[in-house]
Amino acid sequence: MSEPGRSEIDPAVARLRVEAEAAEAELRLARARADLAEAEAAAARARMAAAGEAAPAAPATPDVGPAPVASVPLDPAQVEEIARGYAAEGPALDLGVLVNGGPVPAVPVRIPLSMVARHGLVAGATGTGKTRTLQLLAEQLSANGVPVFAADIKGDLSGVAAPGVASEKLSARTAALGQQWTPRARPTEFFALGDDAGAGIPVRATVSGFGPLLLSRVLGLNATQESSLALVFHYADQKGLALVDLADLRAVLTHLVSDEGKAELKGIGGVSSATAGVILRELVAFAADGAEGFFGEPELDVAVFLRTAASGEGIVSLLEVPNVASRPALYSTFLMYLLAELFEMLPEVGDVDKPKLVFFFDEAHLLFRDASKDFLAAITQTVRLIRSKGVGVFLVTQTPKDVPADVLAQLGSRVQHALRAFTPDDAKALRASVRTYPESGYDLERVLQELGTGEAIVTVMDERGRPTPVAWTRMFAPEASMSPIPADELSSAVAASPLLARYGTPIDRESAREILGARLEAATVAREAEERAEKDAADQAEYEKQKAAIDKAHAAAQKKAQREYDRILRSTAAPSRRSSAPTAPLDDLLGRGATKSILSGVIRGLFGTGRRR
Predict the structure, then answer these.
(1) Given a cut of 60, is residue 52 above it in pLDDT?
(2) What is the Cβ-side half-sphere exposure of residue 557, based on CA atoms within 13 angstroms?
(3) Quick one: average pLDDT of 531-555?
(4) Starting from the edge strand earliest in sequence, which strands make up the sheet with 120-123, in order?
């Protein structure tokens, strides 16, 4: 049996509750507008004070009347939902505050520190504030003890090493946002690609460590040439030929296409002389573009990027690449190489309270331009799995369409600065980008084109791994300098680095080039020795032949002389006893024996058969 009057009481209570909630929402909105009015008044007073004018008194009651719908797109309930979505109990990185007609300091926009390892995207047209957002994130990560690696494309990030400089414009902005701004520098190391013109600790990699897949990407090889290069790497490994620099790889290829190496080239299977020649020509052109100094030793140990300072702050490692436009493939592929090395070195840790390292990949579109399917698959796998190693990756580029969908799906946080739509293709890309956001109270297709410099549309992952509501955010200002530090200060910082003694001087140890050179020299010496032996043998054979001919002729002459001698002896022999011929006068005079001796001497003298004394 129902209680009496229950049906009459419930609707009244429900109505009162609705009215109370509406009143509470109106009150929160009024407070937000009051905060905005107070911040704007404080900023005006600061500007007038700086100009030497008398500041007007703040109004006793701020104007909290209704604002136009166009300037205040969100209702109080939506503002409250955003405030709850970005509330974090643990450590978080403060991006800025909500914008709802103006900045609302009471509603901060944050990324939980534990969710930074879920990766992120910072996108926007040129000049919209991407670099300052990158700097803001790097500073706060360092303050929380997280090391940071970032590529300094234009040299703007070097200011992280110096405290910021206050100005009227900066003070007005931070006051309007309720930001407690304090100028502060962060511990910074500067690196440079090999012997690049940018000042920094030289970063080198060996050719074998770089691997055939990444090198094929740099050289622009097709699939067939890529597989052939992999076979060449395998051959070098099997033969104990260390591939340290480009000269080593050129030496191996030159050997394989030479007369001495053609048999070995056929033996490694599937590599034609023409393909090896193409790879060799590409290597020569690549080295001519200035990449020779990047490959070599000492090879950088990526563990240097995981260090913290004595103060407990994470060290910000900046790769100075001012001439990236001349070598975009090398730059982007090198960063991918670093990620792959980190993936191989770090153990599995799963979800962490804070990342071991956050890796900012600026100009990320260079990584994916003209990339092969295998290369894209390697990138996707690395980004997907490196989170479990405690490494967060933030891609920084102009538009989300620069990033393949499979990679984009792995990014948990998005900071989207203004997009431009000047062409039909731009408009199509803008609409495609809008469709990737959760439902919100914004007309994102319009808002993304109206964002001011330093403003962004933000959605991240909360502490429970859920997407936060989309928030129009005015970003906080970095506390370090937003201008590059002077060149002499940068050089001094590099000279003072403890890494310079380890990586500053290149090492040239015995590798494939020297081994093959020694083999070639030994083969040349052996061939020359063999040729000399063959010549000596031929000379000896000719000598023996001529000697045999001489001996044969000499023996024949002796034999002939002996026959002649015998004939003469027979013709001069004594007549038979029955003969009645008279005795020769010579025999009568000398005697028959003496006559025989004289004749023998004469014959020996004529034919040279007498023994010389």
Answers:
(1) no
(2) 11
(3) 87
(4) 103-112, 92-99, 471-475, 455-459, 413-416, 120-123, 391-397, 357-361, 148-152, 316-320, 188-193, 201-203
pLDDT tens profile 322-366: 766 667 777 777 888 888 889 888 999 888 889 999 999 888 888
Q: Do 186 and 493 meet the contact criterion of CB atoms below 8 Å apart?
A: no
- Give the number of C-alpha atoms closer than 13 A to the C-alpha of residue 343, restricted to the C-beta side: 17
3-state SS, one letter per residue, for 10-37:
HHHHHHHHHHHHHHHHHHHHHHHHHHHH
Distances (CA, A) of 425 to 79, 122, 364, 430, 448: 33, 21, 20, 9, 16
DSSP 115: G
- Three-state SS for 341-382 is HHHHHCCCCCCCCCCCEEEEECCCHHHHCCCCHHHHHHHHHH
Query: What whole-number distance in Å separates Cα of residue 116 and Cα of residue 304?
Result: 21
pLDDT exceeds cutoff 70 at 63: no
Kindly tell me the burial class for residue 289, based on how many C-beta atoms sit within 10 Å of its own C-beta (0-12, 13-18, 19 or more). Answer: exposed
Contact present, 159 and 482 (Cβ < 8 Å): yes
Q: Residue 293's pLDDT band (boundaries 50, 70, 90)?
A: confident
Give the residue among 179, 213, 565 at the shortest CA–CA distance from 379.
213
- Among the residue ranges 160-174, 201-215, 583-597, the one predicted with the least confidence is 583-597
Dist CA 378 CA 384 (whole Å): 10
Report d(CA 303, CA 301) in Å as an integer: 5
Q: CA 37, CA 177: separation in Å to the nearest integer? A: 11
Token match 């030793």: residue?
297
- What pTM did the predictor assign? 0.71
In one-letter notation, the amino acid at residue 211 is G
593/8 Cα distance (integer angstroms):
181
Residue type, 302: V
**Residue 564, Cβ density class (10 Å: 0-12 exposed, 13-18 middle, ≥19 buried):** middle
Whole-angstrom Cα distance, residue 144 to residue 149?
Answer: 15
Nearest 5°: phi and psi at 561? -65, -35
Q: What are phi and psi of 92, to 5 degrees?
A: -150, 160
Q: What is the DSSP letter of 317?
A: E
How many CA atoms within 13 Å lie on the side-chain side of 484? 15
Mean pLDDT of the chain: 81
> Contact at 8 Å (CB) between 355 and 117?
yes
pLDDT digits (tens, 9 = 90+) for 392-440: 999 999 888 888 888 888 899 999 999 888 888 888 888 888 888 888 8
pLDDT of 18 higher than 80: no
| Predicted pLDDT at 598 | 63
User: What average pLDDT score do residues 249-274 get?
Assistant: 80
599 has a pLDDT exceeding 90: no
Rounded Cα distance between 216 and 352, Å, is 35
Q: Of 40 and 162, which is predicted with more confidence?
A: 162
- Give the pLDDT confidence score for residue 217 in this predicted structure: 81
For the chain, the C-alpha Rg in angstroms (whole number) is 46
Place of tokens 């004394």: 613
Q: How many CA atoms lie within 13 A of 410 on its CB side?
A: 20
Q: Residues in the chain, how many? A: 613
Residue 113 is predicted with a pLDDT of: 95
